[in-house]
Amino acid sequence: MSLIFFPPPIQQINSEIARHAGVDLYVLRLDLMHPWVNGNKWFKLKYNLLEAREKNFTTLLTFGGAYSNHIYATAAAGNLFGFRTIGVIRGEERLPLNPTLSFAVQQGMQLVYLNREMYRQRNTPALQEYLQQRFGEVFIIPEGGSNLNGVRGCTEIIIGDAIAFNHICVACGTATTLAGIALSLHEGQRAIAFPVLKNGAFLAQEIETLLTNYLASDLPTPYNSPASWELMCDYHFGGYAKVNDELLLFSQQFTQKHGVPLDYVYTAKMFYGVMDLLKQGFFCKGDRLLLVHTGGLQGNVGMKERSQFGSVKPNTK
Asked: Where would you tag: which of 104, 111, 125, 171 has the fewest CB atoms within 10 A of its CB?
């Protein structure tokens, strides 16, 4: 497995919808940084890995669902950088393993299953103490890499040529990526997040908490205050990991037309939302938009397995 990480290219999207709106549209291809540890997952893992190494931990323990991009990336990163890895998986074991968990095992990850009631306690001191007693000295990374180390890594996503854009658009799950991006933008730039969760307005408080805690820490930040940011909560398509035929068709047509594959859980919803806002005239003529492709394409295999794509029931946006 390669240790080489490639700088993510910025690709222009020649869209008739964007041209009609008078907007320049580009995508930051974080999905092309590495075959297995790419997208925002690398940025959220980077400083967790460094802290674990500095503190002489040899084992990483983290959490995720059976189709988790984070589990996939942590297993690969652990193998790359010489860590033993343990994945605490939500729900019961199901055999044969799906492609995500099969890959994790191939990378050397030990899988442990927790029922959903216990899994909900994953961030409590009691459960973490239990895991430490069971597995010994392990470096615990929260689900999705959602901690201040994760925020710190995400402050490094928008650099170089990316400062030329006045709107940065990103899908939003735990809000860690959005918080890091908001901390790294220049004056006049704005971050726009598209929650993939139903009723995603609650993430506003999560973002404020992450930003407050980060600025109160000793961790480095490019600026003393975050840039403006906004949530667009109407493009969840029914909730986390929910899709419908409209989203699938949009994703497939977008890939065919522009050569950019989209994952159905995150980026497809954000790209759909951006194109819809362009049609509505939400952006001003002359705006320059940068859409952050956060990777996660491996999850499409799992989505196909679960939905069979021929029997996807429509969900409301």
From this structure: 125
Kindly give, in sequence order, each residue whose CB lies less than 8 Å from that of residue 114, ignoring residues fewer than 6 positions away: 88, 89, 90, 91, 122
Distance between CA atoms of residues 282 and 267, nearest Å? 19
Nearest C-alpha neighbor of 62 from the set 37, 90, 35, 96: 90
CA-based angle 194:307:192, to the nearest 5?
5
Structure tokens belonging to residue 18: 């964007």
Pairing between β-strand 24-29 and β-strand 10-12 as defined by DSSP bridges:
antiparallel
- Picking from 140, 193, 196, the residue whose alpha carbon sits closest to that of residue 168 is 193
Q: Which residue's structure tokens are 């893992």? A: 45
- Residues 270 and 233 sit within 8 Å (Cβ to Cβ): no
CA distance 32 to 44: 16
For residue 200, count other CB atoms closer than 10 A to its CB: 23
Which of the four pLDDT bands, split at 50, 70 and 90, describes residue 267?
Answer: very high
Closest CA to 225 of 204, 207, 211: 211
| 3-state class (DSSP) for residue 175 | coil
Exposure of 206 by Cβ count < 10 A (0-12 exposed, 13-18 middle, 19+ buried)? middle
Q: Tokens at residue 237, please? A: 């398509």
d(CA 9, CA 12): 10
Helix axis angle, 176-184 relative to 203-216, nearest 10°?
50
pLDDT, one tens digit per residue, over 79-111 is 999 999 999 999 999 999 999 999 999 999 999
Question: DSSP assignment of 36-52, as one string?
Answer: SS-HHHHHHHHHHHHHH
pLDDT at 149: 98
Whether omega before 96 lies within 30 degrees of 0, making that bond cis, reads yes
Cα distance between residue 34 and residue 4, in whole Å:
7
**Is 158:184 a contact under the CB 8 Å cutoff?**
yes
Tell if the pTM clears 0.90, that is, is over it: yes
Give the residue, 74 or 221, on which the prediction is more confident: 74
